[in-house]
Amino acid sequence: MRRAAVFLALLLCLLWTGAQGEDAGGTGKKEGEFDIQGAHDQSSSQTQMRTDILAELKELRDIAIEHRIKIQRLQQDNTVLETKMSSSEKEVEEVKRENTGKKQKHHKKVNIANIKIQRHLFV
Is the pTM of this model over 0.70? Predict the structure, then answer.
């Protein structure tokens, strides 16, 4: 129904432009005649244009869907990496605390050893 209405509108436009052409010098046609082949060509070119536009839209939709899927995967990867990084940071802090405690114990042992050496030397 829609196509028929468009086709009729195109035919009326062609009839009107044909009438204008007669006024401006004429096309050699009688009043009321119009070029059916021209109307058919224009209609088929518009149909082809619509088909091309629909194909482009479908392609763009497919690309958008692919990008949406990629974004979801990247977000999941990002979440996993953030979790791993947080875990690694906690481990680093724990190792730092352990090292600090070991250094303090080591310094105490070194100080005790130095005191013993000094006592031994001065006795």
Answer: no
